[in-house]
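User: Round two. Same drill as before: sequence, then structure, for each protein.

Assistant: Same drill it is. First protein:
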Amino acid sequence: CCGREPRALLSDQRNGASITVGDREVSEEQLKLWVQKELQSVDSATTLPRQQLAYSAMRVEVHFPAMELTAPYLAPTAFPAKCDGLHAFESKESAGAVPEAVLRRAVRRDGSSLSLIRYNTQLRLGSLSIARKHLDPVTGCHTFCIPALPCTLLENYLRDPKNTVPLKGGQVGLVLERNAAGVPTRAIPGYNSYAVTAGVFDPVSQSARTRVATVVPDKEGILQLPGCHALLALAAAKLKWSTDFIKRPYQVHILLQDHDLQAGFGWHTDGDGTSIGKYREGNLVALAIQLSCSAVSAMWVHGFQPCIYEGRGACVLFHGGCLHRSLPWAPHVFDKNPNCSVIKIVFFYADVPC
């Protein structure tokens, strides 16, 4: 078998495999010697098969270490490191106050008040679930992880400037479809009027750092992007959801979070961000997946502790009706890495039993 030739075995060993003969592990030096003998047999006039020279009376086995395909790349490959934890972010004291402008949005048209944290309270009391999934009593979220490969494929597509195109009004769109000649035929814009940002609102900057799909052709176009189908199939297996359900989101948002904070949001509920309305928020859940391994990031559900995305493949399922926010990075993160950024894709599901 060509897979047992000395050169193939040497390549396997350099890629992490152990080569054994019986109960004895073969060293790299021995493999190199086998390769030399094999080459000599080609140069000489011997009629013996090459493998017979190297393997006479031998039983060769190749053992690759088991791969944990369900483990994410939790440790970021750039600053901040996993051990920094909450030290990578602004303090809860500086980010925790709910602005008066947000509170004013909780007043009904008839003048009566509508509590912004009513679902947060129900979540804490146990009378509300997140799509009937177990939630972490510390963070108020349901967290899990998926393999990194589909996240990498999707992130690479989203970061490639060749996959963007100018749109009307000065916006830049993400290309979802092209014709046979390679000309873009479908693209989605960002949003430029959602002022609940963690920084000073800038509509032009926000448009460049967000993408949103609300209609069926756009959502189906996102699912066709590299890695997206696999990403959702893996998440469905973890959540024990049907693939048919998970691939039919109410909306899909793509966020580039960096120093500008236009895609990092202050205190809000997702009834506003998705335009689903306050009266359907009780059954709105969001699945956020971090595609990047460049840094940790964090979100914070009011009344709980911050939930950290520890790297590529980190997934957070949370209740969209709950008051929550992004937790901004501390300034020292950008002192060490000015270009620090992560991309997340968020799938919203409406009318989910909670």
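Second protein:
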Amino acid sequence: MDRRPTFTECVLLAEHYLAIGQSEIYIDDNSDDVPWHLAASVKEGGSYRLNGPASARVTAAHESGLTFTWHFDFEGRDANGSGVNQFSAEAMLGAARKLPDAAREQFAQMLHDKVLPAVRKNTDNLRDALRKQEGSLGVLQAIMVSVGKQVAA
């Protein structure tokens, strides 16, 4: 199975990457060899669910001249298709704890500016849908009583 090179492998081969004009390297966030301590930028990632970001993209510059990028998800795969956000506190706080202070502040700002508005809107939509559903339930129960077919709800 192919895999992406690790941070350490890339640093060891930096002169070769730079010689072919490749200075930006995407690394796997599942590796134990991710340079969280060098993170300089945190922005919304490429994954979106329910009209808002569901991942973050982290960028870190290294003294070798290489710039590393990786992503981390806010939710597990089982959230797909559920219609509700299922943020993982473990994943999000775990990542935040690894970030340097400035990058952690960027992460918090991105959550505030990009994620929170979408989650609030989705929450409002779900509340509206629940109110409508409860109204329909009440109508159904009233009709059942009025036609003499009372059953336990």
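The chain has a mean pLDDT of 91.

User: Perfect.
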